[in-house]
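User: What would this chain look like folded?
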Amino acid sequence: MHRSYDLWIAYMENRLPEAEREEAERHLYVCDDCLALYLRVVDQQSVAWEEERAKVVTAEVMDTIQSQGQYSGAKLQMRRERRRRLIHYTVAASLTLLLMSSGVFQQLMSYTESWRNAYEVADQQKVPNAEKVMKHATSLLEGWMKRASFN
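Assistant: Here's the prediction, encoded as C-alpha cells.
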C-alpha cells in the first residue's frame, strides 16, 4: 500500500512517531513509487526551504544595513566630492603627461626665452628717466640763455 504525500512531508520534517518513521523507511526500500514521491517532496521542500532562507538572509542583510546606518546626506555628498576631485586630478595629470610628451612645454620654454631676450635688449636700449629729464632741463636752460644773450 502506497503512503500519502502528507505522510512523506511529516517524515521529512521529523514529525512522525519513531515506530511509524521506521515503518516508512522500510517501505521506501521496497516501493519505487513511494520513493519517487518522497524524492519529489524533498525537492519541493528544498526549493521552499531555499526561498525561505533567501528571505531570512535578505531580512538580516537589510537589518544590518539599517543598524549600521545608511550614508547620510553629508557623507554621501562628501563621497561624491572626493570622487569628483579624483576625476579632476586624473584629467589634469593625463593632460599634463600628454602635453609633456607632445613637446608643447618645450616650445613654450623657447618662446619665453625669446621674449626674455627681447626685453633684455629693450632694457639695454632704454635711457633712464633721470637722464631724459636732465637733457630736457639742459636744453631749456640753453634756450633761455640764448634768448637772454640776444637781449
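Residues 1-70 form one domain. If you want, I can go into more detail on any region.
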